[in-house]
Design goal:
The protein is an alpha/beta fold and 258 residues long. It contains nine helices and ten strands. Strands 6-7-8-3-9-10 form a six-stranded mixed beta sheet, with helices on both faces. A four-stranded antiparallel beta sheet has the order 2-1-4-5, with helices on one face. The chain starts with a strand and ends with a helix.
Length: 258
């Protein structure tokens, strides 16, 4: 499964002298197999929201559940992929991708075979005995993707996973990730500052206002964009139109910030 519910979530940071609102009244749902992206001005709370969804942070008010279970529960199976790959340099690629399975005691012959199958899908099965230092940045991120998916999470959280890569590698990885997530029917949330990436990869885009972050607008991605790979989507006229619309909304939020 992978049905996420974020119900009226707010987060306030408290100090001895002050209370700072980070997010206010965030409410949305993500259906099984759906891919959404979160955009917004710098400092609006995108990564904070992802941490709340992951159960790393606890909301001041409201609830976050995955298939009816609080995401802070150990029962909630959530995968997290960051800008940095955080592969263990002293472990081989094979050991890195199977580490999560081992920690969660999921290292059955079937799950190990599944991890190797995923590694083959991303074109790195021949790198099993290599170490992270022997791989390029794009290859390392592909390994990080496999490691995340090897535990078969119900929800995948992607926090700007392509932003440190060169543009050509980034575009190739967008296509690869989009293809695999659709094949595996995974539910996913992407945090990004890249409007084009959000449009090309998503079913919906959630735009947050400046801090305190609120949902300013939700954009539904047209069917013709969702039906093709991200690289192809960027060539469509409907992509350009939506890009300009979101750009104007984002510019307005930036202008009104503070």
């Amino acid at each position: 499964m992978g049905n996420l519910r974020v119900d009226d979530v707010s987060l306030t940071y408290l100090s001895k002298s002050d209370a700072t609102k980070a997010l206010v009244d965030i409410h949305f749902s993500v259906e099984n197999g759906e891919f959404i992206s979160i955009l917004g001005p710098s400092g609006c709370g995108k990564t904070t929201l992802l941490s709340l969804v992951a159960g790393i942070l606890k909301p001041t008010s409201g609830t976050v559940t995955l298939d009816g279970i609080p995401t802070s529960s150990k029962q909630a199976n959530i995968g997290y992929m960051l800008q940095q790959d955080y592969l263990f340099p002293w472990l081989s690629i094979e050991s890195n991708i199977k580490l999560g399975q081992k920690i969660l005691r999921m290292d059955t012959p079937q799950s190990k075979d599944s991890a190797l199958s995923l590694l083959e899908k991303v074109g790195l099965l021949d790198k099993l005995t290599h170490y992270p230092s022997q791989l390029s940045g794009g290859m390392r991120q592909r390994v990080a993707l496999v490691r995340m998916m090897a535990t078969n999470p119900s929800l995948l959280l992607l926090d700007e996973p392509f932003s440190a890569l060169d543009y050509q590698t980034k575009l190739k990885l967008e296509d690869l990730v989009a293809t695999i997530l659709k094949e595996e029917q995974k539910t996913a949330i992407l945090v990004t500052h890249d409007i084009g990436e959000a449009i090309a990869m998503s079913d919906r885009v959630i735009l947050l206002s400046a801090r305190p972050g609120r949902i300013a607008k939700i954009f539904d991605i047209p069917k013709e964009i969702r039906g093709v790979l991200p690289f192809e989507a960027r060539q469509l006229s409907s992509y350009t139109e939506l890009f300009n619309e979101i750009w104007k909304e984002l510019e307005s939020l930036e202008t009104n910030k503070g």
